[in-house]
Specification:
Elements (H helix, E strand, L loop, with lengths): L3 H18 L7 E3 L6 E3 H17 L4 E4 L13 E9 L1 H5 L6 E8 L2 E9 L4 E6 L2 E4 L2 E2 L12 E4 L8 H14 L2 E2 L5 H10 L4 E4 L6 H13 L3 E3 L13 E4 L4 H11 L2
Helix pairs in contact: 1-2, 4-7, 5-6
Family: Belongs to the inositol monophosphatase superfamily. FBPase class 4 family.
Enzyme class: hydrolase
Cofactor: Mg(2+)
Length: about 260
């Protein structure tokens, strides 16, 4: 019988391949919670394919998924699959390359395997207890230590109600660090921190969605980085915000995010 690690790879690859086949095609796009939170018919169809691969081998495992009628929170016990069929849907609908299919499996809240496939970029990020790999190569977080050289990515979505916080955070990040990037895909952003392409990612969401964060956060941790909530405690699903970095200016990042929220 295949292992959960193997199935996570297969499920993510299946979903990513399906989504890629429909990339830049005619899409049915609907708004969800806000004008920037959208879903397509391909998001839903992709999730069904991913879930089918998982349930074919592990029918009794729980599934947490962004779309359809899957549960929305991660149980504290048992095996749980956390799926985002297309993380970066806005990018996907605009024909931009920065989106991933994300699949993670946890046991009693602790990740066992996490896979983010960015098919248009031809990149696959995978983490297990043995480390993080990109396209089969071991990777690690950057070795940058001077905050003024850091490339920092604010991630996750925000609404008009967050305008003051977003403005304050942008000002503080540009004053205290090097450059700021926003990719439009939280999972891809976190994976790029793990690979060293970015030095840090920050989000002030009070309760980030598990499907936006778990796989990428595990990538950072297994690549030697630091991942905490906004209080500086080890990050867990549904914690308060997320700060993921190479660990060399983590306290400064925490100070910036918390100052922006005051």
């Amino acid at each position: 019988m295949p292992t959960r690690e193997t199935v996570s790879i297969d499920a993510a690859a299946e979903g990513a391949a399906y989504a890629k086949r429909h990339f830049r095609s005619d899409l049915t796009v609907e708004r969800k919670s806000s004008k920037t939170d959208v879903v397509t018919d391909i998001d839903r169809a992709t999730q069904r394919r991913v879930v089918s691969v998982v349930r074919d081998q592990f029918p009794d495992d729980a599934v947490v998924g962004e779309e359809e009628d899957e549960r929305q929170t991660v149980p504290d016990e048992g095996y749980v699959w956390i799926i985002d069929p297309i993380d970066g849907t806005q990018n996907y609908t605009r024909g931009m390359h920065d989106w991933v299919t994300s699949v993670a499996v946890v046991e009693d809240g602790d990740p066992l395997s996490a896979v983010n496939v960015a098919p248009v970029r031809s990149e696959t990020y995978r983490a297990t207890p043995n480390g993080t790999r990109t396209d089969g190569r071991p990777v690690s977080v950057s070795d940058a230590s001077d905050p003024e050289t850091f490339v920092v990515a604010p991630t996750l979505r925000w609404t008009a109600d967050d305008g003051d916080t977003v403005g304050s955070l942008s000002k503080l990040l540009t004053e205290r660090f090097g450059e700021v990037r926003r990719l439009g895909s939280a999972q891809l952003t976190l994976s790029m921190v793990a690979s060293g392409a970015l030095d840090a990612a920050v989000a002030f969401d009070e309760d980030p969605n598990a499907w936006d964060t778990v796989a990428g956060a595990y990538h950072v941790a297994q690549a030697g980085g630091t991942v905490t909530d906004l209080d500086g405690d080890p990050w867990r699903p549904h914690g308060r915000g997320i700060v993921a970095s190479n660990g060399r200016a983590h306290d400064a990042l925490l100070d910036a995010v918390n100052a922006a929220m005051e």
